[in-house]
């Protein structure tokens, strides 16, 4: 009997395509639409064939069941993918697509939250009232939400006194920063005592968003720097860092150009006690000096200038000056307010503004060639810019000019001052501007940290405790693969490989622990371990990796531009020859200056050009000398370590390199004009190792942000586009792991309560006595349902993917059969009752009727008898009269 048209009541046996894909790479990239079966044809001894209607409404007949990805029933209500009847890529995408169309942007996949960027404000989803709903509620009881993940972390921290980490990842524009801010806002709200919480509900928002209006924390008044509550200071660090570290890119108008890990400490009462921020400035502020449309430079430049951006070279390289719906003047006031709230003194704020202005004026210094092919500052405008930059940075204009146009080198013990050509001077200017901006950003982070950390320890925080009670929030770039991939992508993808390894280990470990605890026999599948990829990138026991080889190449002395280009080619050659044969490495034949790395999320082709330039992290000694002796204390502070190293020469540089964990020696003697503190790659890897160490001590929670379509359009989710992101975010891997085991787990009691009706009568009879737990739990003995993938754990029933659908289908059929019985019994009873009532009514009517007629007949009878009597009397009278007449 074919099921009714539409969705299947229950999957036909063997018709699901929810089999886990075979372990190992490569994963299949099948994208068949989910379909609803219309009819099942069983073939003797063979696979059943299905007639189906596809997602697009097309009818297809006679498909082998194994080739079909059956559609889940009521996708919109499946808020956890793992609970789907059919776990396959098309099903997952269909569920996400249906939910997204209904503005249900959050969906769980087990403990992972998938957050699809709505690209529109969904006010009903956020705010103090919504936060109050999630307060204290375990994960899964309410609709999926970023607040639920934050709540899970908070309660786990309070219960286990353990460090927690919420790892937020996704590609640019997927909504990581927004999610991170929401998590922080929720934690600030959650940490508030109940009476303040009520106050917040009554009106004031718990926290200002980056660009939102006032409000502030609902705690103490904020009329002075010192009185700003710690929660507010932590929250206000977001817009401040965004102003200096975010820029418009082709993919996101407010793209964070840095990764961030904010660790919020709580005291034993669960109140925010302090926080610390670590940033991972992957591109070392390249956007400060070189951007092209449709990108824009860092937000603060435009806020500061408000309309004057076109006068500065670093900004007018791209003709995008304004952003839709962004008022730079208002944003500038917000940034200043944020500086005040995080506790920057006015003289520090002034110094920050001067430095930013100094960078901008520096960019306007032009060079020409003098008669001796040497760089000279060009024209009146160039000189005016030089003077302005020198004044703002607290140095002399002559000193600045010399630092930009000359280099001192030691040759055989002799110090020679060499004048640069115009191109090299321009490079020197940009290098100084980049360094200044990067140092300023680091300074801001350090200043915020000093403030929020010191407040924390002052407040009797967890600092003194052995076990740190904290929640870290990691907002870092997701996996990247473009047409042209360079050093930034190499670093980002290294970070993602590290995080993926940790993620796999966590998901696997969790599964394994659960099975062991429950005594479930499970042959652990071989999950894809990416250690070989990490070895390729960072070097393993057998060989050097990509990063160490780039560092090695960077140790060569610096020469001319042409020579550097040649080295790039040599670097490609070195990488291709020394890493040839490694499992994850490829050398494309057509691109001799490129190499390929087979990452967990797919292959990425990297260009070797500019890798060395981007890896070198040095400060020109002349720049360090000059700015280290600035008349402005903050500028001196930015370059204090470099100036000391420059003064002490190579030895000091060596010691700084060592203290910075550098793997690079300082440049050789005789080339001391620029010295390297460490390579960007080495520094980044060291930071990453620190981060991974921290994360290793934390209990992780995952939020995977997804960009629904490339155009950032609200309302539509492009399945293929999202599929790549789910793969890159490891969501599909986690689902695969779940599918390979027993993804559905139900505690005995609810399981028994729900499915006891499927047991034969005799077994079900036991229910009355010993309670549901005493039921003979033998799922194989169920009526009308054949389960072939289940195990009984110690406290739960474990089912393989798709088995729950079998149970639900059988339960549905049984319930509907029972409903039919109940209905027919009720209808019979009702009909009988009506009949009885009708009969009684008829009798009553008849009786009534009969009563009235009888009375009328009696009356008539009486009348008739009276008439007869009258007539008789009359006749008697007449006869008597006649007789009397005769006698007379
Ligand atoms: N939950 C949300 N509700 C409404 N809009 C959102 C939400 N999440 C993200 N957005 C929108 O998407 C934009 C991009 O988000 P966000 O800056 O958080 O992305 P990102 O992943 O951090 O990107 P990048 O890596 O480039 O910094 C935001 O500016 C906002 O307009």
TrEMBL record:
Keywords: Actin-binding, ATP-binding, Motor protein, Myosin, Nucleotide-binding
Binding site for ATP: 170-177
UniProt protein name: Myosin motor domain-containing protein
Similarity comment: Belongs to the TRAFAC class myosin-kinesin ATPase superfamily. Myosin family.
Region Disordered, residue ranges: 1-47, 198-224
Gene3D superfamilies (alphabetical): 1.10.10.820, 1.20.5.190, 1.20.58.530, 6.20.240.20, Kinesin motor domain, Myosin VI head, motor domain, U50 subdomain
Leader sequence residues: none
InterPro entries named among the record's database cross-references: IQ_motif_EF-hand-BS, Kinesin_motor_dom_sf, Myosin_head_motor_dom-like, P-loop_NTPase
A single MF term (Gene Ontology): microfilament motor activity
Pfam short name (any one): IQ
Key word Disulfide bond present: no
PROSITE patterns recorded: IQ, MYOSIN_MOTOR
Extent of Pro residues compositional bias: 1-25
Entry GO CC: cytoplasm; membrane; myosin complex
Region (Actin-binding): 688-710
Organism: Chlorella variabilis (Green alga)
Domain Myosin motor: 76-812
Biological processes per GO annotation: actin filament organization; actin filament-based movement
Coiled coil location: none
């Amino acid at each position: 009997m074919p099921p009714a048209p539409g969705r299947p009541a229950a999957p036909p046996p063997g018709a699901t395509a929810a089999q886990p894909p075979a372990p190992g790479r490569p994963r299949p990239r099948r994208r068949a639409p989910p379909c609803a079966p219309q009819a099942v044809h069983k073939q003797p001894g063979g696979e059943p064939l299905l007639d189906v209607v596809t997602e697009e409404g097309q009818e297809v007949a006679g498909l082998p069941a194994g080739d079909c990805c059956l559609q889940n029933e009521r996708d919109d209500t499946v808020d956890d993918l793992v609970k789907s009847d059919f776990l396959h890529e098309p099903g997952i995408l269909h569920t996400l697509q249906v939910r997204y169309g209904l503005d249900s942007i959050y969906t769980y996949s087990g403990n992972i939250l998938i957050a699809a960027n709505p690209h529109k404000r969904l006010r009903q989803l956020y705010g103090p009232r919504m936060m109050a709903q999630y307060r204290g509620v375990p994960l899964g009881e309410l609709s999926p939400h970023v607040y639920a993940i934050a709540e899970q972390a908070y309660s786990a921290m309070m219960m286990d006194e353990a460090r927690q980490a919420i790892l937020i990842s996704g590609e640019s524009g997927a909504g990581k920063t927004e999610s991170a801010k929401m998590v922080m806002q929720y934690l600030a709200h959650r940490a508030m005592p109940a009476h303040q919480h009520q106050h917040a509900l009554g009106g004031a928002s718990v926290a200002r968003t980056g660009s939102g209006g006032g409000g502030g924390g609902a705690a103490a008044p904020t009329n002075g720097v010192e009185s700003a509550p710690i929660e507010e200071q932590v929250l206000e660090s977001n817009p401040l860092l965004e102003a200096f570290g975010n820029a418009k890119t082709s993919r996101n108008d407010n793209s964070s150009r840095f990764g961030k890990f904010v660790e919020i400490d709580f005291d034993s009462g669960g109140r925010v006690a302090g926080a610390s921020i670590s940033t991972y400035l992957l591109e070392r502020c390249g956007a400060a000096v070189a951007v092209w449309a449709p990108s824009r430079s860092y937000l603060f430049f435009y806020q500061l200038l408000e309309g004057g951006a076109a006068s500065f070279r670093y900004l007018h390289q791209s003709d995008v000056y304004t952003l839709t719906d962004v008022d730079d003047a208002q944003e500038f006031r917000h940034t200043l307010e944020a500086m005040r709230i995080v506790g920057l003194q006015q003289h520090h704020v002034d110094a920050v503004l001067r430095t930013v202005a100094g960078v901008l004026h520096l960019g306007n210094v032009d060079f020409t060639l003098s008669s001796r092919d040497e760089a000279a500052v060009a024209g009146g405008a160039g000189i005016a810019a030089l003077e302005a930059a020198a004044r703002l940075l607290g140095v002399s204009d002559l000193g600045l000019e010399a630092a930009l146009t000359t280099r001192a080198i030691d040759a055989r013990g002799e110090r020679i001052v060499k004048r640069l050509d115009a191109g090299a001077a321009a490079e020197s200017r940009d290098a100084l501007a980049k360094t200044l901006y990067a140092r300023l950003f680091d300074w801001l982070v350090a200043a915020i940290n000093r403030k929020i950390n010191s407040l924390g320890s002052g407040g009797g925080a967890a600092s003194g405790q052995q076990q740190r009670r904290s929640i870290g929030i990691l907002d870092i770039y997701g996996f990247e693969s473009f047409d042209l991939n360079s050093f930034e992508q190499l670093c980002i993808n290294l970070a993602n490989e590290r995080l993926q390894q940790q993620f796999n280990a966590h998901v696997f470990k969790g599964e394994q622990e659960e099975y062991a605890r429950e005594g479930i026999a499970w042959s652990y599948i071989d999950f894809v371990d990416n250690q070989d990829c990490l070895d390729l990138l960072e070097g393993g026991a057998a060989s050097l990796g990509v990063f160490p080889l780039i560092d090695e190449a960077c140790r060569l002395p610096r020469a001319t531009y042409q020579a550097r280009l040649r080295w790039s080619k040599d670097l490609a050659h070195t990488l291709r020859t020394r890493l040839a044969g490694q499992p994850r490495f490829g050398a494309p034949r057509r691109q001799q200056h490129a190499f390929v790395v087979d990452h967990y999320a797919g292959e990425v082709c990297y260009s070797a050009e500019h890798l060395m330039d981007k890896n070198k992290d040095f400060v020109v000694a002349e720049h360090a000398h000059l700015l280290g002796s600035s008349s402005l204390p903050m500028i001196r502070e930015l370059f204090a370590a470099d100036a000391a190293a420059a003064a002490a020469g190579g030895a000091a540089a060596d010691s700084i390199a060592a203290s910075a964990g550098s793997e690079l020696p300082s440049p050789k003697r005789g080339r001391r004009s620029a010295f390297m503190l460490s390579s960007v790659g080495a520094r980044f890897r060291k930071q990453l190792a620190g981060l991974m160490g921290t994360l290793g001590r934390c209990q992780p929670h995952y939020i995977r942000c997804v960009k629904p379509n490339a155009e950032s359009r609200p309302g539509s989710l492009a399945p293929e586009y999202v599929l790549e992101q789910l793969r890159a975010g490891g969501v599909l891997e986690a689902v695969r792991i779940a599918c390979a085991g027993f993804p559905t787990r139900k505690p005995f009691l609810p399981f028994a309560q729900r499915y006891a009706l499927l047991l034969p009568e005799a077994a079900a009879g036991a229910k009355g006595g010993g309670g549901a737990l005493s039921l003979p739990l033998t799922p194989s003995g169920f009526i009308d349902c054949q389960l072939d993938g289940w195990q009984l754990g110690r406290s739960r029933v474990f089912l393989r993917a798709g088995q729950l659908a079998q149970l639900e289908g059988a339960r549905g059929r049984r319930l509907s059969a029972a409903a039919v019985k109940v209905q027919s019994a009720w209808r019979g009873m009702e009909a009988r009752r009506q009949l009885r009532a009708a009969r009684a009514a008829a009798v009553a009517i008849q009786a009534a009727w009969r009563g009235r007629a009888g009375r009328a007949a009696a009356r008539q009878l009486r009348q008739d008898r009276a008439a007869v009597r009258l007539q008789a009397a009359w006749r008697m009278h007449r006869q008597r009269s006649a007789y009397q007449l005769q006698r007379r």
